[in-house]
Specification:
With about 110 residues, the chain is mainly β. The protein contains no helices and seven strands. The strands form two sheets. A four-stranded antiparallel beta sheet has the order 1-2-3-4, with no helix packed on it. β3 and β4 form a beta hairpin. It is globular and about 40 Å long.
Length: about 110
């Protein structure tokens, strides 16, 4: 029997990618660092944090971000041995928010 939510705590906007028999999940982190935690599961019930997609300050400089801004709604994709993560990054709120999209990629470990 599983409980709801499968990931307790602060884990908004989950995205799940299946590779073979394994599942990988990433969530929004807004203005918090390190950014975009990555979890692994073999059964969609038991999840383990395996790292973060954004680990260097040069990847995620959020010093001028309004509260609630930052990295929103990441998406994970796996293609031909390479992981891709895309997300929206919002700096300012108001009538005209300032945002852009970015992506990171990493070679898969064998």
């Amino acid at each position: 029997m599983t409980s709801n939510p499968i990931l307790p705590g602060f884990n908004p906007d989950p995205t799940i990618c299946r590779v073979g028999k394994d599942y990988y999940l990433a969530t929004s982190t807004f203005e918090y660092f390190p950014g975009v935690p990555i979890y692994h599961s073999g059964d969609l019930v038991n999840w383990r944090l395996i790292g973060h997609a954004l680990t260097r300050p040069s990847q995620l400089n959020m010093r001028t971000t309004d509260p609630g801004g930052g990295v929103w709604a990441p998406t994970l994709t796996y293609h031909k041995g390479r992981w891709y993560m895309t997300a929206c990054c919002v700096w300012k709120f108001g009538r005209l928010p300032v945002s852009h999209f970015f992506y990171q990629w990493a070679e898969a470990e064998e």
